[in-house]
Amino acid sequence: MIMMNVKNLYIKSLQLLMLLTLVVVFNQCKEPASLNAIIITDAGGEVGKDLQTMLENTGLFDADISSAKSPKFSDYDVVILNVNKADWSADTKEKFLSYVNSGGGVVVLAGSAFAFDDFAELNKVFGISPGSGLKKSKDEFEFLIVNSKDKNPIIEGLNSSWMHTSDYLSFNTETLSGDTEILGTAWADTLQGGNGAHLPVLFTVNYGEGRVFHSTLGMATSNDNLIPIQCVGFITTLQRGAEWAATGVVSQEVSIDFPNSVSTHTWAEYKPLTLDEILNKSMSYEIGKSKMYLNDFSMRLRNCDGKAESYGMYEDKILEFLDSDATVESKKHMCRELSWMGSEKSIAALEKLVNDKDLSESASYALKRLRM
Questions:
Q1: Where are the beta strands (DSSP E) in 1-140?
Q2: What is the pLDDT of residues 287-309, one digit of tens each?
Q3: Closest by alpha carbon to 125, among 241, 238, 211?
Q4: Between the CA of residue 26 and those of 35, 59, 60, 92, 146, what are the distances in Å?
Q5: Strand residues in 75-229 grouped as ranges (E)
Q6: pLDDT at 30 over 70
Q7: Residue 43 · residue 222 · CB < 8 Å
Q8: Own/partner pairs for 115-121, CB < 8 Å, 24+ apart?
Q9: Residue 73: which of 178, 210, 181 has the closest Cα?
Q10: What pLDDT digit, counting tens, does each position of 197-214 carry?
């Protein structure tokens, strides 16, 4: 009986040791976020949570949201400012300056530089002087951002010019102050009250040992209007700017969804959809509705590496789509895509669709191109 109890105890001990080993291995495999960020905002809960989501989607950040009048800056690698009015005491302002001067990272968004009144030393951190207050375009509109030729890590790898979603354009950056580097500019349209010059919308500031990324984008954002911060360009530059401000380097890859000089692009959930998610959302397209998801699919197809296996994967996805209960209009779009990149598999599938009264014309067109 004693020997049996000893044996059972040994087995249980061995099982416990194996379980503990699995826990340790699992925890070692998980790579926790290594950077701490604080988002200081008075824009309302929705906007703060969305900024938090953007940062945490990178896998690099743990982000807190605060409206505190005296945050503990030293607990964080980077401070994100998204405020309209910051009621900071003189002591808090001095602690903030000390934080930046000693190497703290800062991201300034939208009109946050104007939330602190005309405090000269803070103006040096933000790179601009509030002067007579915030000046912006008359209306919200889409505008083109032209990246600087400088190879700053924040913009390296981005399209040289890209469209930003409908937003206000700040006119306060005509003159920058301090140690600044311009990363991107936009034309201050005279019809919108601008001076006709290209004004900085993205720039960095060096203050002491600290690094500051200043983005004037997102100015039109509210809990009822999230379009300005759903812009892929805004999200990408915020994520990369925050990493640079915290570490001095950028490790993030640029998504193929990044906007170009012709059209804007948004991420409603602040991250790119998977290919299957895009196809799922494309299935309900009807004339008169947005073709955003179908266009997303087409853009990914055209931006893939061009290898036979990549085209083969896309072809399989399209053929599955054509065999699904997707709408006729969405299937017509997919037939057009097959017309230039399909293989023998596509020819066989399209021949069947020629007898479909709704898809006959689209299938015949695709077949004709593939057989040329």
A1: 35-41, 61-66, 78-82, 105-109
A2: 999 898 999 999 899 988 899 99
A3: 211
A4: 21, 17, 19, 41, 45
A5: 78-82, 105-109, 141-147, 161-167, 179-187, 198-207, 210-215
A6: no
A7: yes
A8: 115/81, 115/83, 115/84, 115/85, 115/86, 116/86, 116/88, 119/93, 121/93, 121/97
A9: 210
A10: 999 999 999 999 999 999
Cα 114 off chain centre by: 25
At position 39, the amino acid (one-letter code) is I
What is the rounded average pLDDT for all residues in the chain? Answer: 90
> Between 328-341 and 344-353, two packed helices, what is the crossing angle to 10 degrees?
150
**Please, how many CA atoms are within 13 Å of residue 91, restricted to the half-sphere of its CB?**
4
Q: Which two tokens stand for residue 177?
A: 């102050």
- C-alpha span between 43 and 48 (Å, rounded): 7
Strand partners, 164: 143
328 close to 285: Cβ distance less than 8 angstroms: no
Contacts of 48 (CB under 8 A, 6+ apart): 39, 41, 65, 82
Residues 145, 146, 149, 151, Cα dihedral to 10°: 20
Query: At which residue do the structure tokens 């003159």 appear?
Result: 175
**66: left (phi > 0), else alpha (psi -120 to 50), else beta?**
beta
Strands (E), 67-133: 78-82, 105-109
Pair of tokens at residue 66: 């605060």
pTM across the whole model: 0.83
> What residue spans of 104-213 are helical by DSSP H?
120-126
CA-to-CA distance for 273 and 285, rounded, in angstroms? 17
- Name the residue among 138, 116, 99 with its Cα closest to residue 245: 99
Count of CB atoms within 10 A of residue 125's CB? 24
